[in-house]
Amino acid sequence: MKIIHGIVSADEFSLPPHISEKLASLPASWKKANANVPCTVYAANEAAAADRVVTLTHGKGEKAGRLRWSAVARARHNRDKSGSAEPALDLLEKYLDKGKNLSSTQASRWAGEYPLTVLEDAMKRLAARLGQKSGPEVAKAYPKLTNRSGFEELMLDIGLNNIKFKDVRAENFGDKYGLSAPQQPAQTSAGGQGSTANTNSGSAGSATGGTEPHSGTGSGGAGSSAGTAKKGSNAHPSHDPRAVSVLVRKFQPKGAGRAKLATLLEELKQLDVVKTPHAFCFVLRSMFEVSAKAYCADHASAGGPKAIESNGNDRKLISVLKDVVSHLTNTRQNLAMVRELQGAIAELANPDSVLSVTSMNQLIHNPRYVISGTNVCNLFANVFPLLEEMNK
């Protein structure tokens, strides 16, 4: 209703085309007839009774309720009206305000619909790994957490429904986000000298005057860096789909005219590049097209590249991308940017490459052309820098 009456702009939301068409076709008479929305007004001294009605109708999801609220709505009602502690909701609201890896569209949607119970379970199970005593302490400490970036990646995946209860309850599920279990205190040796007992040959050699352990490669001897290595997410080889997932999750497009791009990105995050490589490439091809047009629009007033021919037709995507790279590199004068984007434009322009514009077009038009997810994984890191640079 707010969109229909112009109270908020439809550009702030990723409305499906068929919805936008229906809204645009509404006659003025309908808008006038629906300018007012019926509601129940109660006096301040009736607040307690009104709240009981709201709770029965929505808040608890009971059989008597007419409309089931989301977990976020129930938690917010319990906290704000009943004074109940809702640490998962507190954490979510902080994340939506201060999180560094989510879009404004995601923040708007998750303010009303988010798997809070999954987040609550994850908070309890990861508290010690985050340097806290309990789940509620995690909510209080955020954003000043150990490995904040890893935990925010987890929260993003929960919001995208990539993480569910079965994943949270799996052993060492936090490892993929760099949230490893805390080290156990070392045991004292049988000799009572205060030295730590180790089972690796490096520590044994050190204790007996033998070969000095190799620094950084042993599993616990003197001078070994094991257990105190720099924390962070594990690196993955280029053929590993997790390497693709890391790049996609960290991608945060910015700028006007990119609402559709943000929607496509959310869909891309939910696709398994190995199981659904064709769908992945369909969306990726669309993201390059939308990004190129948005970039051209950004720089149109300054004589930047053009996405449209003089006759009003779209230019070929690869031609536009080449012009975009030329603009980004200042006609190859910016050598640092040339090095950054050389691989991307070479891959996209090479018709024999799986991730070239030609090949991605063939996926749509050629009934016999198919690809494998492994090939996409191997080449994705080559083309990604251009997608990123067009949306900074």
What would you note in describing this structure?
- With 392 residues, the protein is mainly alpha-helical.
- It contains 18 helices and no strands.
- Helix 7 crosses helix 8 and helix 14 (277-298) crosses helix 15 (317-328).
- The chain is 50% helix and 0% strand.
Low-confidence stretches: 61-66, 186-230
**Which structural class fits the helix and strand makeup?**
mainly alpha
Order of helices and strands: HHHHHHHHHHHHHHHHHH
Gross morphology: globular
Largest sheet: none
Number-wise, the strands total: 0
Q: Quickly count the helices.
A: 18
Notable characteristics:
single chain, 392 residues, 18 helices, mainly alpha
Summarize the structure.
This protein is mostly helical.
Topology of this protein?
Layout: H1 17-24, H2 28-33, H3 47-59, H4 71-82, H5 87-98, H6 104-110, H7 116-126, H8 135-141, H9 148-159, H10 165-168, H11 201-207, H12 241-250, H13 259-269, H14 277-298, H15 317-328, H16 335-349, H17 357-365, H18 373-389
